[in-house]
Each structure stands twice: as structure tokens, then as C-alpha cells.
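Sample 3 of the quickstart, ligand nicotinamide-adenine-dinucleotide:
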Amino acid sequence: MTTESAFETARAQLRTAVDQLGLSENDWQTLSTPRRILEVAVPLRRDNDKVEMYKGYRVQYSTTRGPSKGGVRFHPQIDLEETIALAMLMTWKCALTNLPFGGAKGGIAVDASTLSVRENERLTRRYTSEILPIIGPERDIPAPDVGTDERNMAWMMDTYSVNAGFSVPGVVTGKPIVLGGSLGRNSATGDGVAISTREALRMRGINPVGATVAIQGFGKVGYWAAVALENMGLKVVAVSDVNGAVIGFENVSQLWSHFLAHKNLNAPGTDRLSNLELLHLDVDVLIPAALSDSITGLSAVGIKAKIVVEGANAPTSPEGDAILNDKGILVVPDILANSGGVIVSYFEWVQDKQNYAWDGDEVRTNLNRILMKAFNEVEEMATSRKVTWREAAHMLGVARVAEAHKLRGLYP
Ligand code: NAD
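Result:
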């Protein structure tokens, strides 16, 4: 059994969609090629005066349907291929949810946990300065991803604005509210994961109240998904982070309070599990919300959940996917399940353009409306074309980008 990279997985998924849609080889050429790739060296002066060099990337996979949009990841293992794959997924996600964006991704190959706050600020500002010529509210709009948060977005917005000579809040999303961030953006991806879970349970005829969930990853996506799911009446039985998993906590807020105080998940009364044991728990719903490639040909075999809702980007390899499908497990794919983040990022960008802040209800109502529309379209496509939900979601996203290419034509 081989383990596919996120890049190979993304290309294989695109190839399948192109074939299922009956698109031409010309379409494949256009759709499978990233439009702009920037690799930069990011120097950092450490607090002890030592200078270190880091690799940074920004990939604008597509700008056909609007400015490109996608997160900035700080993680030691990122490389160009993975960044291209994630930028490709953003392209189909924005098209699937009908947002007027293309797709992008970027980041620095660094372990953010080794940086002091001042080092993190210097690195973020220098990275922003290096990619500055290609970003902007009408060009490419970064957002937080693994290892970055609203603090990094504030520094990015400030660095861009200082260079422009005036405040440009619309250059990034996921900012603090006082700088033009949107209500509901912090929790948006997790909220969307919870809405997708609720709808998938409905489809399978399972009552959400009392349904059990295991969540891999307890960061921005995993934590907020856990909160929203608990509010819907589900029981979050296990969560994990990079150090392993726990089971037996009273509720998510007890676990979170412990995590904030002690920086670990070992709250009183909990038992430890390995990350693999968490994936294999006998629960109704499994939510991978950490990194790529956690559900592989090896780990998928023992999965017992009835539904997998992909909070993370590209958490399932093609081999893992085939095994889940053979087992009859419903997989709500990443580009649908975690699209709540980019949907509310879109609201933030709109609010910044209009200098007009929405209230929380407006954000929630519109998130639910856009996500439910995409959800229903995927359900309908999967049923009418007899394909998996992942295939249906990719077909919808890829078809919209292909149509936009055709209508715009080829210049010159
Ligand atoms: P984060 O940095 O806030 O959290 C990541 C979590 O995963 C942490 O709890 C970390 O300890 C855990 N983790 C890392 N390696 C792990 C491992 N091997 N096993 C188990 N847990 C592990 O990142 P995030 O923003 O929550 O993003 C998580 C995933 O969701 C990523 O794939 C990201 O691309 C995707 N995503 C994020 C957003 C967003 O708005 N933040 C939107 C869409 C998709």
C-alpha cells in the first residue's frame, strides 16, 4: 500500500472530475496548472541575534472567478507541492460555494511553537513584505490556517497598510474585530463542520441529540466544531492534538479550560488514547480536523464511524477514501464540510469593502444559507450521477471554474 501525497491526491481528484464531467484535454491543461507561484526566502533575526532563513510560499492556483483566496500556514513540513494542492482545493471550494474568488494558499516552513511572539511578528511581517507585490483586496486575500491566527492577520494587514500609506483591512480576512474582522469568523469553519454533521446525520436517519463524535485536532477548527456540536446536543467523546488523544472528559468547556491552563488535554478523569485509537472509536461521527493524510489505506481499515466529516483539508488519501466507500461510510468532503471559514471570510471582505459591519445574526443566517445550498447541490449531484459526495463536490466546483474559463476565453 502506498501513501499518496496531498498533491497527488488533489490531481487524482481533479482528473476524476474532468473525466466524469466529460471535459476536454484542453480543459484538463487549464484546470490542472497553477497560475502563479512565488517562493521566497524569509530571514528571521532571533531574539538572541542569530539570523535564520526560512522558505515561504504563496500559490495563486486560480484567479478566473475573482481574486484568489486562501490561508497562510506555519508548519515545519509544508512544501511547494502541498501548498499547490491546498490552493487547488481552495479553488474548487470557492466555486462550489459560489463565492467570487479563485483559490490560493501560502505559508512558511517553520514550527511556530518555537517562536517568541516578537519573532513570530518579525517573521510574519517579513513574509508579508516578500509576497506583498502579489496580494491585495482585489488580487489575493490571505487568511489564518494551521499555525497562524488573528494576531498574524493583524500584522499582515498592518505591514500591507504601512506600505500602501493607508489602512487596507480587506487585504486579509480572519482579522481581529476591531481591525475590520467579522463577527463569527473565529468559529465559522467549526460552525460549518457542525452544520454539515447535522445534515449528514439527518440523511442517515440518526438523531443528532445524543449522537457520538470523535474529533482529531483541537485547534481553531476542532475546538469550534466541538463547541457547536455540543450545542446541537451531540456528545463529543474524544479529541486529540499533536500529542495524542483523550477520552472521558465531562464536556468540551471543561477540557478547554484545562487546556488553556495547562497546555495539555489531560483533564481530571480523562484516559489517554493514541491518535490511531481515536480514529478507530465506535462513534457515529469522526471528524479529522488536523493535517492532511490522516485517513490512509492503513488507518481507514479500522474506522467504525458511520459518517466522516472532513474538517481538515485533504485528510483522506484516495486509498483511504476507497476503503471508507467500500464500508458504506458517508464522507462529507473537505471542500464542502470546512467551507464555513471561507464563506465568512467572504462576508468579512464584503464588510471591509463596504465599511459596514454586519451583526452576528446576519453572519449566521447567511452562512447557513450558502452552506445549505452547496450541501443540497452536492446531495442532488451525488444521487443523480451515482457518485460519491467527494466526486459530486469536485464536479460542481470544477464545472464552474471550467465554465468561467470558457466564457472568459483565452487571451490573446
Ligand atoms: P490549528 O493550528 O489551529 O490546529 C491544528 C490542530 O491539529 C492542533 O490541535 C494540533 O495539535 C493538531 N495536530 C497537529 N498534528 C496532529 C496530529 N498528527 N494528530 C492529531 N492532531 C494533530 O489549525 P486549524 O486552523 O484548526 O486547521 C486544521 C485543519 O483545518 C487544517 O487542515 C486546515 O487547513 C483546515 N482548515 C482550517 C480553516 C480555518 O479557518 N482555520 C478553514 C478550512 C480548513
